[in-house]
Amino acid sequence: MPHYVYILYSVSKDRYYTGYSSNLNDRLKRHNSGRSKSTKAGIPWILVYLKTCTTSSEAYQLDQSIKRRKSREYIEQLTAGYLFSPFPLR
Q: Which residue range is the domain that position 10 belongs to?
């Protein structure tokens, strides 16, 4: 089963959120429906980066690596080449 590392962007808050999940579609729905406490205030969220990993451990490590940098510039470099959302955010 694939695991995904994703970065979301909130236009209303001008913030990024990084996370990982094995059920991406459900996770994105939770972010945009207000069922996730950490992202509730930034609705709507737009998927701006997606990376597929083979294991949960690999996804977790990549997620933590991005978060440890604490760098908006780094996140914007990662997301610069990501032009479309393969999963609708409903």
A: 3-79
Overall pTM surpassing 0.90 (yes/no): no
Number of domains in the chain: 1
- Three-state helix/strand/coil letters over 9-77: EECCCCEEEEEEECCHHHHHHHHHHCCCCCCHHHCCEEEEEEEEECCHHHHHHHHHHHHHHCCHHHHHH
Q: Dihedrals φ, ψ of 10, to 5°?
A: -110, 115
Report the mean per-residue pLDDT for the chain: 90
Provide the angle, in degrees to the nearest 10, between the axes of the packed helices 72-79 and 56-69.
130
CATH for 16: 3.40.1440.10
